[in-house]
Predict the 3D structure of the following.
Amino acid sequence: MDFDQTFDELYLPLVRYCHGLTGERDVAEDIAQEALVRLYTHRVEGPPPGVKAWLFRTATHLIRDLHRVDQNRRRLLQENPVQPAESETPDQSLEREETRARARKALDTLQERDREILLLRYSGFSYKEIAEAVGVAATSVGTLLARAEGRFAAVMADVEAVS
Amino acid sequence: MRHLDEGTLVALRDGDDNATSAEARAHMDACAECRDALDSARRTAEIVANALTALQEPVDVGSAREAVRSRISAAAGEAAESPSIALGARRARWGASALARAAGLILVAAVGASALPGSPVRQWVTSVISSGEAPSPVPVEAPEPGRVEDAGIRVAIAAAGRVRVVGLQPGDAVVVEWVPGSEVAVFAGSGSRFRSDANGVLATVTGGPVRIELPVDVRPLALEVEGRTWLTSRASGVEFLVAPEDPAAAPLRFAVPEGEVP
């Protein structure tokens, strides 16, 4: 398995998926890198779709484990405030920033499983793969996805109406 | 038949043949109300896709690549002694319970907290997920036989290219995605065969659905299905000779028309 090719194809989608789940870019990058390191240190082998599914599933479980110790993390945050993130590049428009904030809020209102289903689908996973990754029946994915999309879009619309 | 439920509607929208039946597709053809609902589901998908795209931030891929490469090199000795994981083989699940793993992580986190003066979150997270106490990934399950993308090819092509697909049946789904670069990729079910040269790919598939990645930077480029040209990409633009469900959608979704297969 060629490292550069695998990295080029999968790193960015994986970071974006993790970012969607965590809301924190640095954490997302760390999780994505950890999953890729494990891919090679565990010597995972298989066709590209299988490797992609393995990576995303591994990242999902790493994030779930981080959430399990979220209380500790919150305590650490309180004791050790984090420096503000890097400022956005100047050419990013205000509208994009507002859309980003709305999208983040909409994602945060979803339950963990719904968020995973939504982000996996928009990362290109099939319903069958989503079912395997999230642990639901394949026949339920369409319904769960539709409801997650509906809630997401409703929150986006609500926030737009308020702002 | 009653109107289609929301799950079936989005499965039809997404071209997931495993989740939809011929009966549902026939109902869609005959029911204006359900077609309106499908259009609504497409608009919702567009809202979601645009919002998720807006969330994307610049990522320093070069630094990440070197960081990952360095960590893999450092772990190479240890990895050489561990068994490889062949995708498709069912594996034993974690020996420890989820509760024990969570407890182990909390312990690691507590130790990390005491050892990190100033404790930026990133350092803390890195310490947790890099720890030997962190859980192993979940086992890899065997892929479903015949599932889309069980087989595939990805090749770089020259300044002009052609992608040919044969072996499909009327109604089979073909999903086409434009990607940066100069590589063509075709993915299909198990048992599909692929041939390539500098000018393109011939995929002899065992049926649909088929997913195709076409490079935006290679022109002219043609997609042929069952001997018929479906689309061409030239400097002047993309021309569809077989209409996708939505020419503005990404990815493009097609269905093999009736009478297409000789």
Observations:
- The longest strand of chain A covers residues 44-45.
- The helical segments of chain A are 3-22, 25-41, 48-68, 70-79, 94-109, 112-121, 127-134, 141-162.
